[in-house]
Amino acid sequence: MNLNRIWRGMLVVAIATSLFFTKLSSLLSTKRQQAILALTMVCLFVSIPSLALAEEICTDAEIQYTDQPWDGEIRYKAENSTPDYFEAPKPQPGAPNILTIVIDDAGFAGLGSYGGRIQTPHLDYLANNGLRYNNFHVTPVCSPTRAALLTGRNPHTVGMAGIPEISNGYPNKSGSIPSSAAMLPALLKPSGYTTFALGKWHLTPTWAVNPATGHFDQWPTGKGFDHFYGFLGGETNQYYPELYRDTTRVQAPKSPEAGYHLSEDLVDNAIGYIKDLESSDPERPYFMYLAFGAVHSPHHTPEFYRDIYEDHFDQGYDVERRKILKKQKELGIVPEDTQLTARHPENPRWLSLDEDEKQLFTTFMENYAGFMTHVDAQIGRLVDYLDSIDQLDNTLIMVLSDNGASSEGSEYGTLNELTYFNGIPTDVDYNIEHQDDIGTVRSEPHVPWGWSLAYNTPFQWAKRFPHEGGIRVPFIVHWPAEIPDPGAIRPQWQYVTDIVPTLFEILGIELPQTVNEYVQQPLAGESFYDSFKNADADSTHTVQYWENKANRAVYQDGWKAVTAHTTLLGSIPDGHKGKFGKDTWELYNLAEDFSESHDLATENPKKLQQMKALFVKQAKKYKVYPLDDRETAELIDLQNKELGGEKTDFTFYQGMSPLHQALAPNTFGT
User: Fold this and answer.
1) Contact at 8 Å (CB) between 493 and 576?
2) CB of 137 within 8 A of CB of 469?
């Protein structure tokens, strides 16, 4: 009852009582009797509010005082009220743990179970006891894939058309994921999940990476993760990483001389997080996003793992491609009639190299292979731990790469990966002279692109390009309880945005209309949960576009149109700067041409025009425009000037916290 009504009722009672006692007082003869009556009246009037409040609800239903629904009842006294205790959201019985592992820059053939000749026994174990998808696609670059994976939306619609460092002032490339695209960890919280992010993030805009100024809503813990241990940028030194725990800069626990390596540290912390949760709240499931820096450059590899591959790749990358395809056919990961795509015209034939170059290239590859085997061993440690605590079967594990193997090492490879981003040519003689440093603390190496292309076999092109070599990647699902045919290969065409709706279907949840009062964008993916149990399930994702630095493609029901606006190195051919109409489009029927090796553009120009029109339609729908083909160095320099002006004087005070690399004086391109 409303309190105003209570007091009005009390007033009526008081008036009636007053009239009664006034009449009664006139009948009393002595002053003593009248005094007793007056005292009785005072006591009665004082007691009336207490009597009323003891029976009435004392709260205003118009105001919500808590973030959680509260179903209790408040009265004047606690003994007459009904409590309703707050508690953490409860998970559904049997809700699985979810472990998503992202290996950086691993090509389609990067794993042994996908035909590669690099040893990955622990990932192969997951594949042989789970499912391998051979038609799973991502974006051509790291940040867009990660944004699509964690939001379930296309990258251009969430401001992540490229890496955050090349924000160009337009919404599709703002480098800042909007609140209208809540991430998976925030969406899992109401279902009782604890959430962890470890490793590479690369989804925070440059203007928000300074912990001294806050903006932590743009950090992992501001996007729904309960804990974060890793690095904010696109790459970091594996021996001396730029580490944060939640929002605090921390140092690595030991030196590389004492055996430190980032991949090992990430798994140590992953095990630690799980151990703490299992010890304190074992009924609570978790979502863990474990994104390794490996095998992105710098390719830092412990000596033991480098030595594994001595003399293993002496035959060269041209022969390696043929050996990989042969193994892929034997495994059934590609159809028996799959054709090997032609050697990329920018990639030199192995036999054209001199002996010193061959030795250098082989050393680079031995180091790269060791890097992959090393990260595989760390994944094995985590899987073994889950098995040791009887949680492996109750954990849905998904493993994928964020894009194809990278060509950013250039034709000759490099001992300093940043030369590529600064547009500095590789000094081959220097590399030959210092090749013993490859993989050690004295290098920041990247493998030559001939090897990267080999580990995208059977496809063409590489990271940054929407040809299949840049976007079709390994994808493993391990969940024994839900997979009736372990070791099987699934052919369904799926895309990275499909992961969120798949998890939603598994957990029986839906995208809320609003999150923290922000109306949510619709999801762009489709669940493929049915394919876990049904090998003949239909592909649920039938149309998809790609765009990165004006390299463009579109897919629909087996057909694909694609154009490369830039060279393999990333430069713009003469006369093509900003001239997108000059780009040559290719057409492929992937339903019959698994490796994208037969261009049908000349044979079927009508279909090509239909596909190009479809790209325009998709581009308008998903905010792809404007196309921007400016160089990476140019865009980074532009953003730095926008954020910091033409600043040339800097003062750094003794005792300050370590400075994030994006905040250092800008010497880019100099």
Assistant:
1) no
2) no
What is the count of structural domains for the chain? 3
Do residue 46 and residue 107 come from a single domain?
no
User: What is the per-residue pLDDT across 488-546, written as a single tens digit (0 to 9) for each?
Assistant: 999 999 999 999 999 999 999 999 999 999 999 999 999 999 999 999 999 999 999 99
**Strand ranges, E, within 257-394:** 286-291
Q: H/E element holding 490?
A: strand 488-490
Per the CB < 8 A criterion, the answer to whether 135 and 335 are in contact is: no
User: Over 80: is that where the pLDDT of 172 sits?
Assistant: yes
Tens digit of each residue's pLDDT (9 = 90 or more) over 178-235? 999 999 999 999 999 999 999 999 999 999 999 998 899 999 999 999 999 999 999 9
516 and 654 housed in the same domain: no
Give the relative orientation of helices 3-27 and 31-53 as an angle to the nearest 10 degrees. Answer: 170
Distance CA(372)–CA(103), nearest Å, equals 9
Residues 312, 367: Cα–Cα separation, whole Å: 11
Beta strands in 41-180 (DSSP E): 97-103, 131-133, 136-137
Measure the CA angle with vertex 428, ends 567 and 311; round to 5°: 100
Closest CA to 509 of 176, 265, 260, 287: 287
Output the pLDDT for position 3: 47
pLDDT tier, 111 (very low <50, low <70, confident <90, very high otherwise): very high
Neighbours of 203 (CB within 10 A): 27
Pair (474, 377) in one structural domain: yes
Residue 655 is encoded by which pair of tokens? 């005792």
Q: At what angle do helices 121-128 and 355-388 cross, to 10 degrees?
A: 50
Find tokens 């279907």 and name the residue.
505
pLDDT at 46: 53
pLDDT of residue 649: 83
What type of residue is 14?
A
Q: Which residues contact 250 (CB under 8 A, 6 or more apart)?
A: 243, 244
Rounded mean pLDDT, 240-269: 98
Quickly count helices (H) and strands (E) in the chain. 17, 18
On whether residue 365 sits in a domain, the answer given is yes
Please compute Rg for the chain using Cα positions.
Answer: 32
Q: Domain range holding 17? A: 3-80
Give alpha helix (H) positions in 74-200. 121-128, 142-151, 184-188
The domain boundary, picked from 19, 52, 80, lies at 80
Same domain, 44 and 116: no
Q: Alpha-carbon distance 561 to 576, whole Å?
A: 19
Distance (Å, whole) CA 281 – CA 287: 14
Q: In this structure, is residue 196 part of a structural domain?
A: yes
| Residue of 22, 70, 38, 158 lying closest to 497 (CA atoms) | 158
Amino acid at position 293, single letter: G
Q: Is the pTM of this model over 0.85?
A: yes
Q: Is the pLDDT of residue 353 over 60?
A: yes
Residue ending a domain, among 19, 53, 80, is 80
Question: How far is residue 214 CA from its own chain's centroid?
Answer: 22
Residue 190 belongs to some domain of the structure: yes
Q: Is residue 22 located within the same domain as residue 101? A: no
The reported pLDDT for the residue numbered 418 is 84
The token pair that represents 376 in the structure block: 């595989």
Task: State pLDDT tens for residues 27-55.
Answer: 555 665 555 555 555 555 555 555 454 55
Q: Does one domain contain both 162 and 197?
A: yes
Amino acid at 12: V
% of the chain residues with pLDDT over 90: 78
**What percent of the chain is modeled with pLDDT above 70?**
88
pLDDT bucket at 57, cuts 50 / 70 / 90: low
Are 446 and 322 within 8 A, CB to CB?
no
Residue in the block written with tokens 């799973």: 136
Structure tokens at 158: 């969430």
d(CA 204, CA 154): 17
